[in-house]
Specification:
CATH architecture of the largest domain in chain B: 3-Layer(aba) Sandwich
Order of helices and strands of chain B: HEHEHEHEEHEH
Radius of gyration of chain B: 31 Å
Distance between the termini of chain A: 27 Å
Distance between the termini of chain B: 41 Å
Oligomer: heterodimer
Number of strands of chain A: 10
CATH superfamily of the largest domain in chain B: ATP synthase, F1 complex, gamma subunit
Largest sheet of chain B: 5 strands, mixed
Number of helices of chain A: 2
CATH class of the largest domain in chain B: Alpha Beta
Order of helices and strands of chain A: EEEEEEEEEEHH
Radius of gyration of chain A: 15 Å
Low-confidence stretches of chain B: 201-210
Structural class of chain A: alpha+beta
Largest interface: A-B, 26 and 29 residues
Number of strands of chain B: 6
Mean pLDDT of chain B: 85
Structural class of chain B: alpha/beta
Helix content of chain B: 55-70%
Number of domains of chain B: 2
């Protein structure tokens, strides 16, 4: 069995997901980063975007709206004010929100909806 | 029925109506404490992870940041006071206000100007009545605060801290709220949020020997991380304070309503005793009237027989 790291995916008001993973891919302000077990201690600022957690039984994808990634001692925590797992996202609602945001020229809302949709489709 | 008895009956009725209301409020508060406590617990992982990250950056790097360094001569301090929107919670709000007054007094003694921010209608009313200046106030969410509420509160505070002192910014940020210890104990506390006091962090590190904070790699840079981290840190601390205050408020209300219910019960008991005595007196009087009438009648007929 490959080495694993412990992942805590935490939102401001709840703990969203936690478990063992072999690889975590997230987007920081200076680019995509992949963290595997034994990585150097890291503290980074996340961009809004999908986060992929590769576990032994498949991928967990979540939409993260801002936040931080911190890794030390094979423990990785992803902190964000809002975290949604891909399974929790209502695609139709996100699509509607995206169209509405485009119509209103609301850049922030458009980005939020876009992040949700990208998390669902799994496109980075 | 005697007039006295009627008065007692009426009072018993009104007290039992009050008792029903206080009992209902007590039960509602009790059920809400559990919910509020669960919210506090749910927000803990985020807060503790964030605190750990902030500590790591602040101790692990030599970055100087406006939000972590102590100003040599602080002139202005912001105090955020968390009270409740509604009353009937015993001394909950007034205790928090008293703590804020004490803290304000101390800061003023240290030569700092105090800028007050208030959460909750009770605090707003207190400062409004005394015509004291309040920089900003928020009401309407003390029962069950959300993260969005905490963000709304934190926004202006962070702006004030980041502003230069000469332009009206503040050098320190304090928060006064009621800490939830247990169902029976809630303490009003005043904490300094900013500048970060790192005295606690080394103590914790010493408490767990052999666990040194790792040397972090910062992405994009230590300053950048700190810039992004600290506002979130303040928000999460305020969120935690609001949640604890909400739990304390419900606990205080439950206790106040419980003693009100007990008092009502006591009052009903003593009123019932009085009512019984009054009824007994009525009956005794009636009997003695009947007996008196009968003997008067007997005396009259005995006289006419002769």
């Amino acid at each position: 069995m490959a080495a694993e790291l412990h992942v805590e995916l935490v939102a401001a008001d709840r703990s969203v997901w936690s478990g063992e993973a072999t690889l975590v891919i997230a987007r920081t302000t200076s680019g995509d980063i992949g963290v595997m077990p034994g990585h150097q201690p890291l503290l980074g600022v996340l961009e809004s975007g999908p986060v992929t957690i590769k576990t032994a039984d498949g991928n967990v994808v979540a939409a993260v709206h801002g936040g931080f990634i911190s890794f030390a001692d094979d423990k990785l925590s992803l902190l964000a004010e809002i975290v949604e797992l891909a399974d929790e996202i209502d695609v139709q609602r996100a699509e509607r929100a995206l169209e509405r945001a485009k119509a209103d020229a609301d850049a922030a809302a458009e980005r939020r909806a876009d992040v949700r949709l990208r998390a669902v489709t799994g496109v980075h | 029925m005697g007039a006295q008895l009627r008065v007692y009956k009426r009072r018993i009725k009104s007290v039992s109506a009050t008792k029903k209301i206080t009992k209902a409020m007590e039960m509602i508060a009790a059920s809400r404490i559990v919910k509020a406590q669960r919210q506090v617990a749910a927000s803990t992982p985020y807060a503790s992870e964030l605190t750990r990250a902030v500590t790591a950056v602040a101790t692990g790097s030599n970055t100087k940041h406006a939000l972590t360094t102590e100003v040599e001569k602080p002139v202005r301090a912001a105090v955020l006071l968390v009270t409740s929107d509604r009353g009937l919670a015993g001394g909950y709000s007034s205790n928090a206000i008293k703590e804020a007054e004490r803290l304000g007094e101390r800061l003023r003694a240290e030569g700092k100007e105090v800028v007050t921010y208030v959460v909750g209608r009770k605090g707003v009313a207190y400062y409004g009545f005394r015509e004291r200046p309040v920089a900003q106030s928020w009401t309407g969410f003390t029962d069950s605060p959300t993260y969005a509420d905490a963000k709304r509160v934190a926004g202006p505070l962070i702006d004030a801290v980041q502003l230069e002192t000469a332009e009206g910014g503040v050098d320190e940020l304090h928060i006064v709220y009621t800490e939830f210890v247990s169902m029976m104990t809630q303490n009003p506390v005043g904490n300094r949020l900013l500048p970060l006091s790192l005295e606690k962090a080394p103590a914790e590190a010493e408490a767990t020997p052999g666990r040194i904070l790792p040397l972090y790699d910062f992405e994009p840079s230590a300053e950048g991380v700190l810039d992004a981290l600290l506002p979130r840190y303040v928000e999460s601390r305020i969120y935690n304070a609001l949640l604890q205050a909400a739990a304390s408020e419900h606990a205080a209300r439950r206790r106040a309503m419980k003693s009100a219910t007990d008092n009502a019960e006591e009052l009903i008991k003593s009123l019932k005793r009085l009512a019984n005595a009054a009824r007994q007196a009525d009956i005794t009087q009636e009997i003695s009237e009947i007996v008196g009438g009968a003997s008067a009648l007997a005396d009259a007929t005995a006289g006419s027989d002769k």
